[in-house]
Amino acid sequence: AVYSAVGNTKKPLYYLGFSGVLNIILNLFFVIVCHMDVAGVALASIISQYVSAALILQALLRCKDIYALHPGKLRSEMCIRDRDILKLGMPSGLQNVIFQFANSFVQMGVNSFDATMVAGNSAATNADAMVYDVMAAFYTACGSFMGQNYGAGKKKRVRNSYLISLAYSFGIGLILGVSLV
Fold it and tell me: What is the pTM (predicted TM-score) of this model?
């Protein structure tokens, strides 16, 4: 998010791409070579997520720009801005908790079926996540562009970018969704 906010979307893409390839390689290694099944897939995902986080953290620590991470300067001061962040963040976090809690009941219901149903649901969930991620890429790119234009006082460009991003996201979602069906 930090790199996207400053308009550098390539660095996070490279790190996520590397971690994605690492995840695939580790999946194959743990499942085929180590015969670990689900535990191997989970371990591969955990390792690749930590590698991705470590790469971004290292880049922010080595950065010399204004957005560089300085661990010694990290502190929380309850100012008006912090309260505003909490007012927005807490309901959003609570919404995500409720959504995940409800999904656990759906997953329990799905798991009560046979292995074929569970595998089919898993495949559909992965395909759905792929479509969502492609659509969200437009939102992420648009968010950076809109933030820069908003800061520059170019409100018409903010609205236009939003509408263009919405159209692209809807279009790619429609194409991928129909392709999956």
Answer: 0.54
